[in-house]
Amino acid sequence: MLKGIAASEGIGIGKVMIIEETSLDYTPKTVTDTAAELERYKDAVEKFCAETEEQAKALRKSTGDKEAEILMGHIQMIKDPFMGGSIENLIESGQCAEAALDQQCNMFIDMFSQVEDEMTQQRAADVKDIKAAMLAILLGVKVVKISDAPKGTVLVAKEVTPSMTAGINKENIVGIITETGSQTSHSAILARALEIPAVLSVENSTTTLSSGEQVIVDGSAGEVMTAPSEDQINEYSAKRDAFLREKRELENYRGKKTVSASGDEYELFCNIGTPKDAAKAMEADGEGVGLFRTEFLFMDRNALPTEDEQFEAYKQAALVLKGKGLIIRTLDIGGDKEIPYLGLEKEENPFMGFRAIRYCLKNRDLFKSQIKAILRASAFGDIRIMFPLITAVEELRAGKELVEEAKSDLRASKIEFDENIKVGVMTETAASGVIAHMLAKEADFFSIGTNDLTGYTMAADRGNGDVAYLYSPFQPSVLMMIRRIIKCANEAGIPVGMCGEAAANPMMIPLLISFGLTEFSVSAPSVLKVRKNISKWTKEEADKVAETVMAMSTEAEIVDYLKGIV
Amino acid sequence: MVSKKLTIVNAQGFHMRPASTFATAMGKYACDVTIKHNGNDVNAKSLMNIIAACIKCGNEIEIVADGADEAAALDEAVKMVESGFGE
Predict the structure, then answer these.
(1) What is the dihedral of CA A406, A408, A412, A416, to 10 degrees?
(2) How far apart are the C-alpha atoms of A115 and B15, rounded to whole Å?
């Protein structure tokens, strides 16, 4: 048995498919024999077309003509007079085939992804596919295609990258195993979104497991069973069925209010990253959005989004939510993200550096255009503004001043917005926890970001395996911080939510009920489970649990105790 | 030079499949074929160009063919668009 981190619940029984990491790096060089280079490129195109035709044939059999034609479109794209022609011209001018391909493909990827049309944006993914496949051929690297995985496949990879996402077919992939990652890494978030059982951080799994061997992935326990016996397969099949049955039971909580056993009502919101996710939040029966990350508007592009573009995105989310609460967090970026046009310099310690509200307050034009876009969208729903990474009262004041400035600009232009828009603080730093009573006087609401709050309070990087043991929201210091933030909000009479992963943790829920949290914001697939979990607790029982926990002085004790009662 | 104004009737507009069949079909003609859309001239023989133009259902376009076999090219182009690319 292999141990790992339980990252996405459920049981998968299937055959291993190892996704080897293929580096598509190359060193660009100038070519003197351009005729030979052109020949090399043309050979690669021929090979690409032959491979693609094969895939299209297979796809035609399995899913039909229309899907296959999309794949055939890849052939046409690479041979397109505009794309293929320009690549050939670049090679003739002395560039190597790899660089020419890279440059031209990237141009189209940028062009397509900037169009505000889903169909066109999907074409950017096509060009990315073509680029990767062509580079692999030119460099002589073998690439395993995830989209070709047969039914009952368990993916095994170093990590699940965003570009792999496109290839994952929920019907065929029954489990995911990775060598790196934690509960909050991209692989985990992705696996949960796709509802595929996943076990992460299984050391050396890409080398100890081999393609084709049968394994059981227990994403609830964080275990992988190799060479399972018939008994084990029967046992886990039964477990899998029980898991799926429970999932169906959760459906009973759909359309219900979120109420504790003692009758207290809570708001149960969702965390989203794009306007499209707003629809998912509604499908999942979320009662609103507690965290709308706005970074997507700024990533993977070459220039700032305009105010109008942002307005459209926020408005779209507001319209989907039909008057339900929508908390929009202003830009939360720093030197750890590659957004070249923002001119953010690489820094030694980006998480303690020039980021989020700090960056925005120094770049007032950018910040104001985002705030104006949010204000304009507030005419279309119940929108609230949230500032990330607040560590001092001045930051909140400066942010609020800018909101007032933006309001008077809009008034002058006779543009409608919500005059009483709420402005809140994402309490996610140790500093904000300590001064929560001061912030509570000037903020309209709090939302606790447990991921960063844990990291900043414990001074521990969750991505670093050597210190990850410190990174736990059940550390007494983090729990005290959470309790304090909630208490200060309660005393000031403002709503207080939690939008970090911990809000969905069944062990955390009684504590949050006891502390006095008013809103839970979780990932869409967790909504019904959280509603069910909240319904189990009375305030009195939750208080007892909290009292016991807060008297304990180690994380291990607390976790042990909480595991025993949920 | 011959031309005709048309409206896109299929629900998904000029997406991958229609754009692909359209560009292939136009590629067979010797004449230049251009789609005028939203003030832009789009090379009808280039799938990439058509996709980048983002032509949607309900959009008005004008197809312009210019060259030896322009009449035949325009005829086929119009038929394809009017039939909604068989969708």
Answers:
(1) 70
(2) 13
Say how far apart CA A525 and CA A209 lie, in whole Å. 30
Per-residue model confidence as pLDDT tens digits over A325-361: 999 999 998 867 778 888 888 888 888 999 999 999 9
In sequence order, the β-bridge partners of residue A464 are none
Q: For A490-534, how does the pLDDT look when each residue is reduced to its tens digit (9 = 90+)?
A: 999 999 999 988 999 999 999 999 999 999 999 998 999 999 999
pLDDT on residue A500: 83
CA angle A496, A500, A506 (to 5 degrees): 90
Pick the CATH number of B2-82 from 2.60.40.10, 3.40.50.150, 2.130.10.10, 3.30.1340.10: 3.30.1340.10
Retrieve residue A305's tokens.
């989004």
* E strand intervals along A4-100: 5-8, 11-19
Tell me the residue ranges of DSSP E strands in A479-556.
496-498, 519-522
In order of their start, the domains of chain A are 2-20+146-249 (3.50.30.10), 34-139 (1.10.274.10), 263-565 (3.20.20.60)
Q: Choose among A306, A527, A344, A254: nearest CA to A519.
A: A527
Contacts of A108 in chain B (CB under 8 A): 48, 52
What is the spatial distance between Cα B35 and Cα A454, in angstroms, rounded to a whole number?
Answer: 56
Strands A265-272 and A5-8: unpaired
Q: What is the pTM of this model?
A: 0.59
- A270 with A289: CB under 8 angstroms? yes
Alpha-carbon span A543 to A262, nearest angstrom: 12
- The better pLDDT of the pair A191, A260 is held by A260
pLDDT digits (tens, 9 = 90+) for A67-100: 677 778 888 889 888 888 889 999 999 999 999 9
A76 vs B51: CB contact, 8 Å cut-off?
no
Interface contact flag, B54 A77, Cβ < 8 Å: no
Residues of B within 8 A of A70 (CB-CB) are: 16-17
CA–CA distance, B34 with B44 (Å, rounded to integer): 5
- pLDDT recorded at residue A334: 83
Tell me the sheet residues that pair with A252. Answer: none
- For range B71-77, the mean pLDDT: 94
Domain ranges for chain B, please list them. Answer: 2-82
Q: Are residues B16 and A80, on separate chains, in Cβ contact within 8 Å?
A: no
Q: Does the pLDDT of residue A63 top 70, yes or no?
A: no
Backbone angles phi, psi at A470, to 5 degrees: -80, -25
- Residues of A that are catalytic: 186, 499
pLDDT in tens, A166-196: 567 788 999 999 998 877 666 787 788 778 9
